[in-house]
Design a protein that fits this description.
I/LWEQ domain, 215 residues, single chain, mainly alpha
Length: 215
């Protein structure tokens, strides 16, 4: 191997790794965008013989099917945000990253199906339990991906020390809330759904505490 070949080899390898990482990120963004779009495809339209009936139907949809759509849209968007920020700190591809990312994307594309089940009449308990389990699966798969990136040393050298801990907290809080809601659902589906609001409460409390501490 000549000196010129040795000098060019690392650059070529780095370029190939960068292309592989870019393709994984672009593919992930596309799959997540499609999943978010699928949430809206089967949303029902208001029904009725006159305007008054349609307005009543719309009100029922807003507190039912449309609210489930909004919840899933926010859930997917929140996990995408963590995934997006995390991969901005990744330096290169490594072992198991593509497969763990595929598992994460699989749980994402199952979420629209779980959303339909959640808003199905007559299947309240099943819908709530399955929906919560799928969200837990999304979070756990992303935690495994984060763990592997950290374990294999694939994060950039200039990544802040808080990167892993911050991402883990952002994932773990909703995972715990939805996991707790599963046994709660067998006693009360309404209480289980209120449990899903715990991440918002925790976020508000943490932000309020930080502002108070800095004041």
């Amino acid at each position: 191997m000549t000196a010129a070949t040795r000098d060019s080899a690392p650059a070529n390898e780095t370029d190939g790794t960068d292309r592989g990482l870019d393709r994984l990120v672009f593919f992930s963004d596309a799959v997540i965008a499609i999943a978010m779009t699928l949430l809206a495809i089967e949303l029902p339209l208001p029904e009725g013989d006159d305007d008054a009936a349609r307005w009543r139907s719309l009100g029922e949809l807003v507190t039912g099917e449309y609210l489930s759509f909004l919840l899933s849209f926010v859930v997917i968007g929140a996990f995408w945000s963590v995934h997006h920020r995390l991969f901005q700190r990744v330096a290169r591809m490594g072992p198991w990253i593509a497969w763990l990312n595929l598992i994460f994307l699989f749980t994402i594309v199952v979420l629209p199906l779980a959303t339909r089940l959640h808003r199905q009449e007559g299947a309240e308990q099943v819908g709530v339990v399955v929906y919560a389990a799928v969200v837990v699966g999304v979070g756990v798969s992303l935690l495994l991906l984060l763990w592997q990136l950290h374990r294999a040393g694939l994060l950039r050298s200039d990544a802040p020390p808080e990167t892993v801990r911050g991402a883990a907290r952002a994932i773990a809080v909703p995972v715990l809330a939805f996991a707790v809601s599963i046994p709660v659902a067998f006693a009360s589906t309404t209480a289980a759904e209120y449990t899903w609001l715990l991440p918002v409460v925790v976020l508000l409390v943490v932000r309020g505490y930080r502002r108070w501490w800095r004041a």
